[in-house]
Design goal:
The protein is mostly helical. It has helices at residues 4-13, 21-39, 44-66, 72-79.
Length: 91
């Protein structure tokens, strides 16, 4: 069974890889279902497998929340950097 830390390392180690956190969550769900079918739904391995799924989902939510949302002014200044509203002066 793969641990949560191993999954996060695999996702974050190679930014050029095509594996996303969504794919890791889906794979963890499949693995959790398989583990629970093989070991029983009350087994410790089943609980750990679902804990990994929950941790991945929490990480996805954390990453989404950590992204900075641009304000309308920031978007405007990217389009028109020389506009009066966007000029910054050092005093």
């Amino acid at each position: 069974m793969t641990s949560f830390n191993e999954i996060l390392v695999a996702i974050n180690s190679d930014k050029n890889s095509t594996k996303t956190i969504e794919q890791a969550i889906l794979e963890a769900i499949v693995e959790a279902r398989t583990t629970c079918e093989q070991n029983g739904s009350n087994s410790p391995n089943c609980a750990v497998a679902w804990d990994i799924v929950e941790e991945l989902q929490a990480e996805k939510a954390h990453q989404k929340q950590a992204k900075h949302c641009k304000t309308a002014l920031e978007t405007y200044c990217e389009m028109y950097p020389d506009a009066l509203e966007c000029l910054v002066y050092d005093l």
